Amino acid sequence: MEYTTLGETGTTVSKICLGCMSFGTSDWREWVLDEEEGKALVDRAIELGVNFFDTANMYSEGESERVLGEALSKYDRDRFVVASKVYFQMDEDDPNSGGLSRKAIEQELDNSLDRLGMETLDLLQIHRWDDDTPIEATMRALDDVVRRGKARYIGASSMWAHQFAEAQHVADLEGLTPFATMQNHYNLLYREEEREMLPLCEKQGVGVIPWSPLARGWVARPHQEARATTRGETDDHAHEHPYLEGGGREINERVAELAEEKGVKMAQIGLAWLFSDDRVDAPIVGTTSIEHLEDAVEALSIDLTDSEIEYLEAPYEPVRVSGHE
Q1: Is the CB of residue 178 less than 8 Å from the CB of residue 171?
Q2: Residue partners of 2: CB distance under 8 A and separation at least 6
Q3: Nearest to residue 82, comparing CAs of 150, 35, 31?
Q4: Within 10 A of 195 (CB to CB), how many other CB atoms are there?
Q5: Which residues of 120-143 are buried (b: 16+ CB within 10 A; e: fewer)?
Q6: CA gap 68, 60 in Å, rounded
Q7: Which has the closest alpha carbon to 79: 11, 10, 146, 152?
Q8: For residue 21, how many C-alpha atoms fall within 13 Å in the half-sphere facing its CB?
Q9: Exactly one of 3, 59, 87, 186 is catalytic; which is it?
């Protein structure tokens, strides 16, 4: 395993963050691993040197947090960096179980901590932007969470760069805790974040931890085989993103070509491309397979040349914004 510093927090994290959306309960999504399989995946990740885990309260309606918490409970908790997220409504009968009001943030964080079996969350992230709550109110609530020791750092996820800049400006103006990380949508087939968000994060020393680093599988297998897995067959969201628009198909084919040439897997090429980007701290790798997790770790040893990176990137064309509205 290789390690890096998470933004300017000084905290050391593995260069692979295990995304925990893929376990909890298959009652939530067909492709999600059930409890024992999820725990086995966490155990193997720890054996491989992973110390960074990302979940969210809405994953399997809280079950992902519970399974992760139980899986980590037999280890020394201080060894790990655990991140979760709030925003999406958790109880259809309680509108205050979603959004980014002070009430929602405080009560849903407490619920997350209970499920995780932890007193402090390392990284609390807002899962999306809340148009109904003034950003000043959200940033004050998040600052209080940090000051009370309920979370060590705060982070944001997919949003417009101008929104992120506004939030950081409010924090600076009011002397509040700023966002330390950005969990954005970024991969070989979706690079719109290179226009504004990545330069903004680089300028402000914000750690970048992209979600969907393999474009929901579109980078991991030939595009003709996109529905060859349970998730590919059942995850309608995977077919809503613009991954094959513009030059996407050609990029997919070039990934396959380069993988065959190097004797590695397509997913490893896609991850190696992200690892080569100094602006990226740790892609969030979600998997339902121990083998694929091991492949991801092996990808750290793949060095792409400048010409290979240029070859992979060349067909890319601008696509519609995806991952937030």
Answers
A1: yes
A2: 14, 15, 300
A3: 150
A4: 12
A5: bbbbbbbbbbbeebebeebbbbbb
A6: 12
A7: 11
A8: 14
A9: 59
- Residue found under tokens 């925990």: 20
The residue type of 190 is Y
Rounded Cα–Cα distance for residues 46 and 80 (Å): 9
Digits of tens for pLDDT over the chain (325 positions)?
999 999 999 999 999 999 999 988 888 998 899 999 999 999 999 999 999 999 999 999 999 999 999 999 999 999 999 999 999 989 989 999 999 999 999 999 999 999 999 999 999 999 999 999 999 999 999 999 999 999 999 999 999 999 999 999 999 999 999 999 999 999 999 999 999 999 999 999 999 999 999 999 999 999 877 655 555 555 555 557 889 988 999 999 999 999 999 999 999 999 999 999 999 999 999 999 999 999 999 999 999 999 999 999 999 999 999 999 7
Confirm whether 59 is a catalytic residue.
yes
Cα–Cα distance measured from residue 109 to residue 86, given in angstroms and rounded to the nearest whole number = 7
One-letter amino acid for residue 104 of the chain = A
Spatial neighbors of 283 by CB under 8 A, at least 6 apart, are: 16, 17, 209, 210, 213, 271, 274, 275
Quote the distance between the C-alpha of residue 61 and its chain's center. Answer: 17
CATH class given for the domain over 3-313: alpha beta
